[in-house]
Design brief:
Helix content: 40-55%
Strand content: 5-15%
Number of domains: 2
Number of strands: 6
Strand order of the largest sheet: 5-4-3-2-1-6
CATH architecture of the largest domain: 2-Layer Sandwich
Radius of gyration: 19 Å
Structural class: alpha+beta
């Protein structure tokens, strides 16, 4: 497979082909493979999605190689395509990709958005979700099958990754609600919390639509209005989040933290 026919979206494929060719030139012999994860692998990709990718390398990226990749991404961002600033991905060595190692968790990463640049970022235990999706349903643009690069990710690892997200990312939002004053990020938070709740219960990862429906079916009317408005907000990220939705999102975080308590590791007696 190559990027030209990797997805049903010609504009996305054109951008991925450009990225792949440039990455291979910059990394040369250090390149192992390039893969897609995220919504492109689960069938819920739409005009408001990002393009999640992972590049596997034979060694950690640093120094001149990092600077060359950063300059390459700066150039890619100027391409005349609506997807040029929607790339979100990481460059991870073969060793670090295989399994989580807290002493080996700092890797180059770029996030979607205008003005975003490649940076070094910690890929903590919560990144097990990406590792799982890559291994189980990742799209290979070129390189060995992801199953040969990544060890199986257990349900317990996924639950612990979800707990880490709750205690880190979600708790930070509780302490600083101003972060979700933007409609786009507030909506993202609600839908991501649905995925976390699903993973805690089932030890697996599903798409946002599947997880959101599951939460609505499981909890009845309690979170349905908030979730339905989150879908509207997702398609209108420039709006300001309403006070009731900010408060509802904070309540959903508290609810998820409560549900997570039953999956906390128990101290040995």
């Amino acid at each position: 497979m190559n990027a030209t026919h990797s997805t049903p979206y010609p504009e996305v494929n054109a951008l991925l082909q450009e990225l792949l060719e440039n990455v291979q030139i910059v990394l040369a012999r250090h390149f192992i493979g390039m893969y897609l994860d995220g919504s492109l692998t689960s069938g819920d990709f739409d005009q408001d999605s990002d393009i999640d990718f992972v590049v596997a390398t034979d060694a950690d990226i640093a120094g001149d190689l990092f600077m060359a990749l950063q300059a390459m991404h700066d150039r890619i961002a100027t391409i005349d395509s609506p997807w040029a600033i929607q790339l979100e991905g990481s460059y991870i060595s073969r060793h670090a990709l295989r399994r989580y190692d807290p002493s080996h968790a700092l890797h180059p990463n770029i996030e979607r958005g205008n003005g975003e640049r490649l940076k070094m970022a910690v890929h903590d235990r919560a990144w097990a979700v990406h590792r799982y999706v890559l291994r189980e349903r990742g799209i290979t643009l070129t390189g060995p099958a992801p199953q040969t690069l990544i060890d199986p990710v257990s349900p317990e690892e996924l639950r612990q990754a979800s707990l880490e997200s709750l205690h880190g990312w979600a708790t930070q939002l509780l302490n600083d609600p101003a972060q979700i004053s933007n409609r786009g990020y507030q909506s993202y938070t609600v839908l991501t919390l649905c995925r976390i709740l699903y993973t805690l219960k089932h030890g697996a990862v599903v798409s946002k639509p599947v997880a959101a429906r599951w939460v609505q079916e499981r909890t009845g009317e309690r979170w349905t209005p908030l979730i339905e408005r989150a879908w509207i907000g997702r398609h209108n990220p420039q709006w300001e989040a309403q006070a009731e939705d900010i408060d509802g999102t904070l309540d959903l975080i508290r609810y998820a933290l409560g549900r997570g308590e039953e999956f906390e590791p128990r101290a040995a007696s």
